[in-house]
Design goal:
The structure holds two protein chains of two kinds.
Chain A lengths: L7 E5 L3 H13 L3 E5 L2 H10 L4 E5 L7 H8 L10 E5 L4 H10 L3 E4 L4 H39 L11 E6 L7 E9 L2 E9 L4 H17 L6 H13 L8 E9 L4 E7 L5 E3 L6 E3 L17 E5 L5 E5 L15 H11 L7 H9 L8 E7 L1
Parallel strand pairs in A: 1-2, 1-3, 3-4, 4-5
Antiparallel strand pairs in A: 6-15, 7-8, 8-9, 9-10, 10-13, 11-12, 11-14, 14-15
Helix pairs in contact in A: 2-3, 6-7, 8-9
Chain B lengths: L1 E6 L2 E10 L4 H10 L5 E12 L1 H14 L5 E5 L3 H9 L7 E2 L1
Parallel strand pairs in B: 2-3, 3-4, 4-5
Antiparallel strand pairs in B: 1-2
The chains are: A alpha/beta, B alpha/beta.
């Protein structure tokens, strides 16, 4: 059985005759109607029962329609509620002021009831369509986010890789990605990447990038060659302006060497187990997918048993460390202080310490131990 | 905020404040309008931050200029933005002054 949503309209007018007439007409149309004779009463009514649409007089004693609209949109759950102004004023300035505050339409007094019915109907239809669109988009993002999480390898899936990860996307489906790949006996590849933008497309690019990495990360390629091949495939496919930054690190536990390649990404950090020193695996490289002839720098370093490597995306250090040391300075300090904790706890502890809860970007931290 | 301003025989693009995803359409339009001479100048002295989408727009502009023998020049970027652009290797593609 289809369940129809009955729309709720709030009518606000200090003229009692108008208030009664409009309420009656809208009830006859099948809407739930609340009424208020002034701004404060309207805000009280809206807070109690959130309306789908507000029909409001501008000129009211005390709080006028403009101020009531401004405060209405500040109420929880009321942001973006369409407001149609009723006004005796036809001047352009008043109309523009109302639109700037978020009004969606005007009806000039003396009004015709047919016009009121038609405008209320149109704006309710738009409201319903927008709500359905938002719900549909939310559903798609949630299912995409679920698929994305299912595709992410967990530490228990690959215990030999000795890694831990913390991933907190800013939206349901994020643009940061990581992967850990077995590349031979005692050899693992670790990737952390960040796709530009914050829309549904970023998740699709992230998924494609992981598929390409699996194709080109084999032991016959150096990490630098892997990045060049991934770049070549992405460049022919990505829309102009879309790109990724990435760090790809290959650890060979047989030789205790690590090789890192950068694609315009913050350098991974090594925490030396015996000295407690933090050393960046710094090298230069172009971003992925933007340039056909991109170049990627590579750095190699010996590791000792127990040394840890931390890869991260810039959401971890967003807004931190403005100054000569850059945002990495805060991370290096935090890693030196808490880096000796259990490996499984390290990524989340770094995120708690640095990123906090108020943020607009995804936060991804991956740590592994040699 | 994005605006364009006359510069010599051509037009320069001026970025101000925090350039986020909401300004991308304006940025693309302004960069396109500025493709009149040999160099597209982007003035960033009053720009505090660039979103990744804004950086993508600059890259896309650069990639369209190169085949036409033109170039993108970033002027006056602050220390944080310069560090970011260099980290991303964009100093090898854009002219930073």
């Amino acid at each position: 059985m289809t369940v129809f949503h009955q729309s709720r309209v709030l009518v606000v007018d200090d003229e009692r005759t108008n208030l009664r007439l409009l309420s009656m007409v809208l009830r006859q149309e099948g809407h739930l109607v609340d009424s208020a004779a002034d701004g404060p009463s309207a805000l009280e009514a809206a807070a109690m029962n959130i309306p789908d649409l507000v029909l409001m007089d501008i000129m009211m004693p005390g709080m006028d329609g403009f101020e009531t609209l401004r405060r209405l949109h500040e109420l929880e759950g009321c942001r973006g509620i369409p407001v149609i102004f009723l006004t005796g004023m036809e001047d352009l300035e008043s109309k523009l002021r109302g639109f700037a505050l978020g009004a969606v339409d005007y009806v000039v007094k003396p009004f015709h009831l047919e016009e009121i019915r038609a405008r209320v109907r149109i704006h309710l239809q738009l409201r319903i369509a927008n709500r359905e669109l938002a719900e549909e988009r939310g559903k798609r993002l949630r299912s995409l986010g679920q698929a994305q999480r299912e595709m992410m390898i967990r530490p228990e899936d690959l215990p030999d890789a000795k890694f831990a990860v913390h991933y907190s996307p800013a939206q349901e489906a994020g643009g940061d990605l990581y992967d850990v790949l077995p590349l031979g006996a005692g050899i693992h590849g670790y990737l952390v990447a960040d796709v530009s933008g914050h829309d549904v497309g970023t998740s699709l690019v992230a998924t494609a990038a992981k598929a390409l990495l699996h194709q080109f990360a084999g032991p016959v390629y150096s990490p630098e060659e892997t990045m060049r091949l991934v770049n070549g495939a992405l460049h022919g496919w990505l829309q102009p302006g879309r790109f990724l930054t990435a760090s790809f690190v290959r650890l060979n536990r047989n030789t205790r060497t690590v090789r890192a390649v950068s694609a315009g990404h913050p350098a991974p950090l090594v925490l030396e187990a015996d000295t407690g020193r933090v050393v960046p695996l710094a090298c230069e490289g172009d971003v992925l997918g933007a340039f056909p002839d991109a170049r990627f720098g590579m750095v190699e370093r010996a590791l000792r048993t127990g040394d840890r490597v931390v890869l991260y995306t810039d959401g971890l250090v967003e807004g931190r460390g403005r100054g000569p040391g850059g945002p990495e300075a805060d991370l290096e300090t935090a890693l030196a202080e808490i880096g000796a904790c259990a490996l499984a706890e390290l990524p989340a502890r770094l995120a708690d310490r640095l990123a906090g809860t108020s943020r607009e970007d995804d936060v991804l931290v991956l740590a592994f131990e040699a | 905020m994005i605006r364009t301003s006359a510069a010599g025989d051509g037009t320069k693009v001026v970025l101000e404040g925090n350039v986020g995803v909401e300004e991308i359409a304006d940025l693309l339009k302004a960069l396109d309008a500025a493709r009149t001479g040999g160099t597209v100048d982007v003035e960033m002295a009053s720009c505090q931050s660039l979103s990744s989408s804004a950086i993508g727009a600059l890259i896309a502009c650069h990639n369209r200029l190169v085949p036409e023998g033109m170039r993108l020049r970033i002027r006056g970027a602050n220390e944080d933005l310069l560090r970011l652009l260099k980290l991303m290797g964009l100093d090898r593609h854009f002219e930073l002054v």
